[in-house]
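Exam review. A common question shows you a sequence with its structure tokens and asks you to describe the fold in words. Practice with the pair below. Do the first one on your own.
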Amino acid sequence: MEQRRIMGHFATGVTVVTTCYEDQPQGMTANAVASLSLDPPLILVSVDVKAQMNACLKASDCFAVNILTEEQEEISVRFARHGPKDFSGIAYRTEATGSPVLEQALAYVDCRVTEILQGGDHDIFIGEIVAGGAGQGRPLVFYGGQYGTLSG
């Protein structure tokens, strides 16, 4: 698809979006994430309508966005696969909403869903940030269909 090839030239950070659904942690790798508003503090996440995570987010009404470090490529790959997601060996905690926050993430925001908009074959989940934090490290980036790191 031409759009995919063109937009592949837009370097992005890599995140794992998480929630808790039926008392089980759920997650997916996402780079269609953006800061939306500072007042109120809002973020958006775009999720394919056919993805299992879409239904989980609608049911749980909350999510966390975990920004990955350059050492966490394996986690990104794990959560990008289709099917059930495996949290084994990944340390996490919960904050305000009960969504999993990855312990080694570079930064995170914990959000309550305030609105869901339709956008073609994706739903756009708008979340109000109710907790968050940032650590030290370097981000994992995605460009041209490949993982990379920042230089400098």
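Now try the second one, then compare your answer with the model answer below.
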Amino acid sequence: MPIEPNPLAPNPHYPVGILRQHGRFHVLAGAPIPKGGHIMDLGGKLSSRPSRYSVQVDVDLHVETWVPVQGDTSLDSCQVRYMNHSCKPNTRIWNRQVIALRDIEEREELTFDYNATEWEMAETFICTCGHCDGRRISGFKHLNPLEQEERRDLLPPHLQTKLASPG
């Protein structure tokens, strides 16, 4: 059953922080976040093509998360850009929002499954999340049928359509 935003969550947005450690950025929860909590919105420039820092939000629509929102050049305007991939994510992207898949503890890293948002990645990479065997992350299109089915509950409408389509 898909996890939808929790309308009873006391706060529609939760504080997050960005940590740079060993040359990598990480987005951390600044407070406990309940399952279904709306953490933040995806902001940025819309594009019809994927890029290294975009998140796919519709069939041919991507949000460039690296582009500062409203001229702001601080890290705060591009927080989603620093969210890392995980094969066992604690958030999902739904309707241009980051939603908690489960209760998240304060200072826990926020992650999402890039294969559950992107049809095809602009740049593929080898996963280092620690929950898999270092698989290549290439996008939903490149997953086998079992892997696609395993992500069914995470999928936004543009990928649910692809899962339902034969071939």
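Model answer, second protein: The first helix runs from residue 145 to 150. The helical segments are 145-150, 157-164. Full marks require stating both points clearly.
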